[in-house]
Amino acid sequence: MKTRKLGDSDLEVSEISLGSWLTYGVGVEADQARACLEEAFNQGINFIDTANVYGRGAAETFLGDALHGRPRASYVLATKVYFPMSDTDRGLSRAQIEKQIDASLTRLKTDYVDLYQCHRYDEDTPLEETMEALTRAVDSGKARYIGFSEWPVERIQAAVEMTGVARFVSSQPQYSMLWREPEAEVIPLCSDNGISQIVWSPLGQGVLSGKYDPGQTPPRDSRAASEAMGRWMDRLMQPDVLGAVQRLKPIAAEAGLTLPQFALAWVLREPNVASAIIGASRPSQVIENAHASGVIVDTQLFMRAEAILDEALAPGETV
Length: 319
Description:
eight-stranded parallel beta sheet; TIM Barrel; two-stranded antiparallel ribbon
């Protein structure tokens, strides 16, 4: 497992990281989730990403229990704040950041998180208030570094221009061969300002695994077949998309990789990407995905794959 430096921080994070959206504490049984986490560490993954809203605290609680007793310095732990935790608790106000980071630390059973991320931008709170609160979280030692997820580019620009506040070191966008939007503005801006990408859904919520055939019922043990985990996948499960993905398998084979490994290697070809977050419900998936780290792929193979997907998706319809 290779590591990359996370922005202008001193954190070295594994190229493949383990996420917990829709899975741990929610859609995957605890024993299976623990097995995935254990295998992640076996494979050299040192970066674990979660959020307070995942299962309304359930994912953090699971990780707090599962990580208990493991040397704290042996892994990098990230969580997030913004989405509603109750009818009255949401957003990035000073009060919410102070309340939610304490609650997250309690559930995670730790004194600090290595990375505290704004899960979205809060239009109802002045940016200055949010940045001041995040700075206090860093100064207090509750968070070592701060990041953001899916912020508008103009808000990122405004944040990096502020003085006297903690600096962002990470951005967490959706990014995959099926969703390349960050390449236009977010990645260049971040690259110029010491901010790395930690990308979510690098496999298009599993579509780029190639397990879904056009016109076929999804496998019973897949995310798309799960009521808890598959509800956001409709826009990805289109016949043209699924057919194009199937055509990528021979190209991945030419690279000596499985399709998931090829898709992850494609994401990691971008120097500004520090880590690709995977979601796994079985240890075998962790093993397969971990082997995407450090592989060298002929650029021509990536270009062929991109052309196939471009052909399947009309301009402006990238999913």
